Structure formats: structure tokens, C-alpha cells
Amino acid sequence: MSASYQSLSQPRVAVVGATGAVGIELIRCLEQRNFPLSSLRLLASKRSAGKTLPFRGQELVIEELNDANIRDIDLALFSAGSGPSKEFGPLTVARGGVVVDNSSAFRMDDDVPLVVPEINPFALEGHKGIIANPNCAAIISITPLWPLHRRNPIRRLIVSTYQAASGAGAAAMEELRLSTQAYLEGETYQHTVLPHPYAFNLFSHNTAIDPATGYNGEESKVIAESRKIFGAPDLPISATCVRVPVLRAHSVSITAEFTDPIAPDTARRLIADAPGVRLVDDAANNYFPMPIDASGQDDILVGRIRQDLSDPSGRSLNLFVAGDQLLKGAALNAVQIAELLLA
Ligand SMILES: NC(=O)c1ccc[n+]([C@@H]2O[C@H](COP(=O)([O-])OP(=O)(O)OC[C@H]3O[C@@H](n4cnc5c(N)ncnc54)[C@H](OP(=O)(O)O)[C@@H]3O)[C@@H](O)[C@H]2O)c1
Question: Which residues contact ligand 1 via a Cβ below 6 A?
Fold first, then answer.
């Protein structure tokens, strides 16, 4: 990874993990945003080879990800899990391609930029071929905070997530659908994707607990990645990540303590003017961000902005946000990064 990279012009693009929950959205984003590519290659596992997916009015044939099929690629958008990213990401770069990776494989590497275009596009400068797309819960949590943080730095952050099935991939979405149907029909359902019954239930995020801290893997990612993206390595952050029986779009309850006192109206004004977020804060009608409204939307919905009454200094706010983590938390953010790389 020592080559220096030119800007991309009419790149030959590959979507790796094209059949997955994120991959399908990557293809849609490339089409909807009219991404200027010269060719698109769809790669997935052997299971999907020979199937087709639509793109710009054509049916493109899916190929197996292997050494031969990852050649002649200028830009590879990886969303096939850490294993394929580790095996084929550096190989793509060695052959002169640029990788935008949705997995967690490289996110905390010092020489890999971890980018949310609304927050730290400058981190792309001098990249060495691999660019990491952050964890979805981290993106949804901190993108709405950025316009506040840059005016009045956050001193302490507490987030509690309500994470949808889609965050665990297409198979988890199917498990939620099937287990809910079985529950309503009074039948038993043997879950195979997630570790607990999912219909009419919720549970602590299905990543392993670190015995030293008691935090699960998702919570640790949210903490470490938020610090890296904000360029605030010592920012005190706590996270509780929970999987809820929502099909798509994550929600987050946020408490942020700022350096100086901050009024809810100031926060509303800053958020209303910021890119990538939309104010949904209608107290009169009790209408606030909901995953069902966030699904399919590029913007992260932000509301319930109120003073945190547990901090009489006036420096803390509570917010509630909902964002489509398949879009802004994954595919859209990755394509936005790719757009920044265009000549
Ligand atoms: N879901 C999210 O909200 C989200 C957000 C941010 C990041 N991510 C990350 O994005 C990646 C994909 O997540 P997902 O939710 O889209 O998962 P998914 O729905 O389970 O899809 C996985 C994709 O990877 C492919 N794949 C699996 N093993 C492969 C292999 N050995 N070689 C080639 N392709 C392989 C699958 O192909 P087949 O269909 O052929 O099996 C499928 O296209 C993961 O790293 C995840 O952590 C996901």
C-alpha cells in the first residue's frame, strides 16, 4: 500500500457483497446518484454466481469473488464482511485500485482514513488505497452531533442505540419477518441468525462482551470510531447497544455534555442548517424521529432536542435520532466517499 493515488475518473467499479443488505443499496446508490463509472462488476460468494441484479436498465451477472475476478478494478466497494475485505482488499490496492470498505477490518488502522463526508472529508488526503466506512451506529449517532460539536465541543457523550435487523444483514431481516409471522400464528420458530428470539423481543447487541470492560463489540466500535472520526482520542463516551425488532433504520438516544451552556433552540438552528440531517422535532404533535420514517431516507432524522435536566449547568442536551443505517450508515456514506475521490 505504498503507491500514491490519483483521483478517479470514470472508474471501473466493483461492488463486493453485491447480494447483501448493504450491497443491494450500494448498487441503488450508484444508480440513483448517477455515479460516473465506466463499468460495474458485481461480486459475491460462489452461492450467488450466475444470478443477476439490475443496474441502469440491464441485468448484470454476479461473479464469484476470487483472485481472477477482482482484476482491472479502479474502485472496489466492499461489503462482504471482514474476511473477504482482509483477503481481497489489499490485493485490489496492490493492483492499483482504491477500496472503500464497509467492514470493520481496517477501521482502526492508523494509516486508514475513517470517513463521514459531512465530518472529516479532509481525512481522505494522502490515503493509501483503503478507506474505511465507519460502523453504522457510530455514523447515525455522531453525524447529527457534528454541527454542534464544531461550535461548542462535546466534553462527554452517552449513546443508547435501538438497532434494526438490517444492521445484521439480509438474513437477520428475514429472521425477523419469519419469526414474527410464526409468533402471530402461534408456531414455534427456531432462530438461526441472531442468538435470541427476535419477534416481540429485544436484546443486548449480539457482539461478544469484552470481559475487561463489560462493553460488547458494537459498543466498543461506537466509542473508538466516534473518537477517531471527531479527531478527539480522549473524548469520554459511553454506549449501550441494543437490537430491537425493527426491520430497518437504527435509532439512538443521545446525551451530550458541551463545553459551554447550549440552548435547545441553538442546537435546532445548527442542525436545521447542517447537511445530511433533518430536524423532526414537533413537540406539539409529539412527532419525532422514527425508524419507519427514516427508512429509505438519505438524511438522519433528529429531534426530541431538550435540555438535560440532570445537568443544572445548562451544558447538556438530550436528542433522539433515527437514520437508515443501510444508507447513511453504510451504502450512501461509502458512495459519498467515492464521490469525493472523483477527479
Ligand atoms: N447491514 C448494515 O447495516 C451494515 C452497516 C455497516 C457495515 N456493514 C458491513 O457490511 C458488510 C456486509 O453486511 P450486510 O449487512 O450487507 O451482510 P449480508 O446481507 O449478510 O450480505 C453479505 C454479502 O457478502 C457476501 N459474501 C459473504 N461471504 C463472502 C465470501 N466469502 N466471498 C464473497 N462474498 C461473500 C454475500 O454473498 P452471498 O449472497 O453470495 O452469500 C453477500 O453479498 C459486513 O462487513 C457488515 O459488517 C453492514
Answer: 17-23, 44-45, 47-48, 65, 79-82, 84, 102-103, 136, 166-167, 169-171, 325-326, 329-330
Catalytic-labelled residue, pool 29, 127, 136, 241: 136
Kindly report, residue by residue over 232-242, the tens digit of the pLDDT.
999 999 999 99
| pLDDT, tens digit (0-9, with 9 covering 90-100), for 168-204 | 999 999 999 999 999 999 999 999 999 999 999 999 9
**Contact indicator for 44, 134 with CB cutoff of 8 Å:** no
How far from chain centre, in Å, is Cα 5?
25
pLDDT at 155: 98
Closest residue to atom 41 of ligand 1, CA basis:
45
Among 19, 22, 332, the mutation site with the greatest number of ligand 1 atoms within 8 A of its Cβ is 22
**Amino acid present at 252:** V
User: What proportion of the chain, given as a percentage, has pLDDT over 70?
Assistant: 98
What does the buried/exposed string (b/e) look like for 272-281 if buried means 16 or more CB atoms within 10 Å of the residue's CB?
A: eebebbbbbb
Give the residue from 1, 37, 27, 70 showing the smallest Cα distance to 341: 37
Look up 250 and say whether it is catalytic: yes
Which triple of cell numbers denotes residue 133? Answer: 466506512
Instruction: Using most ligand atoms within 8 A of CB, pick from 102, 225, 327 the residue to mutate for ligand 1.
Output: 102
Burial grade of 143 (CB within 10 A; 0-12, 13-18, 19 or more): buried
pTM: 0.97
93 DSSP β-pair partners:
none
Lookup result for grid cell 470517513: 115
112 C-alpha to center of ligand 1: Å?
Answer: 21
Q: Give the model confidence (pLDDT) of 38-70 as tens digits.
A: 999 999 999 999 999 999 999 999 999 999 999
Give the contacts of 103 (CB within 8 A, at least 6 positions apart).
78, 79, 80, 81, 82, 84, 85
- Is 205 a known active-site residue? no
